[in-house]
Structures are given as C-alpha cells and as structure tokens.
What does this fold into?
Amino acid sequence: MEVPAGTVELLLRASPFQDVSAADLQALLPSFHLRHHETGGVVWHSGDDAADLWFVLEGQVQAVQTSDAGAELVPAVFGPGESFGHPALFAPRARRVVSVVALVPTSLARLPREPLLRFLETHPPAMRRMLETMSILMLTMSSQFSQVAFHDVRSRVALQLIKLADEYGQPADGGGLRIPFRLSQSTWAGMVATSRESVNRALSDFVASGEIRQQAGHIIVMDRDGLRRVLGRRER
It folds into this structure.
C-alpha cells in the first residue's frame, strides 16, 4: 500500500507490533489495505466473515451489538494506534458477533489473516503480544459482565470514566484529563448497558460534584479519586 505519513509509527503502537522493528513491519506493508469511512459508515456487520485484523490510523470506531428490540450494547471504542478484530482470527471459519461503525471520519488499515499469521509465526515477540491482547480481551469481557451484574448505573459510568481517562486521557487546560473521544449519550448508554436518560443523570451528577467537567463536547475527568470513591460506596 502507499503509506501515508506517520502510518508506520501508528502501526508500531498497535497490537501485535509493539515489539517489532520498523524494518520488520515495512516488509508486511504491501499486505495492508487502506479504507476510509465517513461518520456512521459500517466497517463490518455482525455476521460478516471474520478474516482480518484492523488498525485505526485516524478517527474513532465503536463495536456495537443490537438486540431484536433495537437496544444497543457497546463493548468497545477504538482510536488511533489501536487494533480491533482479534477474537476470531484463530478460528478456521468465524463470523463477526458485533458490528463496527465509524463515530467520526475514520481512516483504517486492514490486514488479512494469512499474511498476519505468517508474520506471527516468524516473529515470536508479535505472537506474544497477540496472545497478551487476546487474554486482555477475555478479562475485559468478564469485567464488563461483572459490572452489569454487580454495579449500579452510576458506578458503571464511573468505571468507564476512570478507564477512558487512564487509557486515553490527555492533560487539559485548567487541569484534569481530557477524553479525546466525543461519545454520544447513545454510545455511553451502550457502553454501560443502560438508557440514555440514566447516563445523562449520572454524568450530570458527576459534573455537579466536580468529578468531571464538559467542554466543547468532550469530558474532562477532574477527580479520579472521587470517581473511585463512588465505587467504594457501592461496594460497602
């Protein structure tokens, strides 16, 4: 593929390439395919064949599961320098169990399974990173199930705020950590398995008590310890 500026650096941040050299990755670049999606564009549908690993070069996508009644669950959101689509790669014949949709104009790189597997077989550090990522995904899924089962809505929102701030937070003017994603209330509702109204109440509570502030469509986490205390009150 014709490589846009900065692509190799972004790919080297993504699983499974964090421990390989730029020279090793250069040899794999012809196997990648570039894609661009406007806001709302579908990267894949639930039920599609699962035969590729995807990388976010620019923008943001979310994984979505939709019930027959139209309720949505959002298991994950991915931004630049992240990869997605791992779970089905080692199954001989697998289909996607979620849809993936662009939340903003998004540029992606797609790597088919066979060149990826050949690369993993000849680069043990990349294979270890892939296995590590698969383990983290399984632990995350178990954690999400526990959150819904054992935490109320306010606690689930607090957990997501802490997670997003820890993983993606950027220092903001006036203090705090700015979450770079602009997440709609629908996306928030899907992430914590509740209604938009319940999410709005929880976020408004956190604004009023100073744990977060909102600025130009972004959430800035001001007090992670305060959010953790919300979890502590729930656990008692």
User: Anything to note?
Assistant: The radius of gyration is 19 Å. The longest strand covers residues 52-58. The domain at 151-235 is CATH 1.10.10.10 (Arc Repressor Mutant, subunit A).
